Amino acid sequence: METLFTVVSSKGQIVIPASVREKLGIEAGTRVAVRTEKDQIILQPITADFIDSLVGCCKGEDSLVEFREREHRIEKR
Known about the structure:
The chain is of the alpha+beta class. It has helices at residues 18-24, 48-53, 64-76; strands at 32-37, 40-45.
């Protein structure tokens, strides 16, 4: 893992080095999620690959169809 350095501007902005942007597919206009873990800042680019990786991550016990059918039965009562 290569360590690169950047500087925080007076407005709190940073420049992501070009090699990192190219590696992660970050282009102008790419949204980036920012979160902290202990004393670290984690930047997660919101790319098509990231969105695709979320498919099914929030699935509950019932499918959406089963949930809708159950809610419909309850409304009929």
